[in-house]
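== Folding task for one protein ==

=== Format: two labelled lines per protein ===

==== Paired sequence and structure tokens ====
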Amino acid sequence: MADTRTTAPDAVPFFIDTHCHLDAAEFDADRDEVHARAVAAGVRIQIIPSVSRDTFAAVADTCARYPGCLPAWGLHPMYIGVHRPQHLADLRARIEAQRPVAVGEIGLDRFVDLDYPTQEYFCIAQLKIAREYDLPVLLHGRRANDDLLKHLRRIGVRGGIAHAFNGSMQQAEAFIKLGFKLGFGGAFTWPRANNLRRLAIDLPLEAIVLETDSPDIPPAWVGRGRNTPEALPRIAATLAELRGIDVAAVANATTHNAREIFRLE
């Protein structure tokens, strides 16, 4: 069981950023300050997913250095050009050396012009690894939700999170039936994100987790700037406003949901 203790004040709501690339180069100049501000804001746990074998070390170092940062190991579809079949053995070795909270970030991407059969090869292989080690998965899926659902039904993993979900209600319900939570972050805070906002209102709260995907997917108030994990409480406040509930209810529910997926104390 992962140690999730941190030193944030008890009066501050407890948030879990279920997807944050704090290891990214965009934070090299001020990573200490970024993490400190997030914890002060109540973001006590951050899940740090790798994107390639070459980022395993940076994720491991980040998680060792900062309390509340927990690793996920995976090979991201956007980096398909650097992945090699032997990296799957490296992924298994990394899981054996330091058990993660999830396998990720993995998945499929039809939004960009990347070798799709090779994406599927690595995605399917990693789903099987997650099943082998009884770990949830952090799924990246752009214009590929139906394909991901097909593979999930066939392979069968211990649930996970559909990261940055932007599909239909029917697809959302299909993920939920397979034991998944849906990740909501900066994208739904934009006023014109009508589909995401409708999902944020209509989905059961027990199906939602919060994320920033820092330094990417900035919320509306950041604009085109760098996203940071300290944005999570304001993202939660936006969700609370849309649903007409108290932000504490959002914090409590989404934190519970994340703990359930990652089996955190």
The chain has a mean pLDDT of 96. Residues 6 and 67 are 6 Å apart (CA to CA). DSSP finds nine helices and eight strands in the chain.
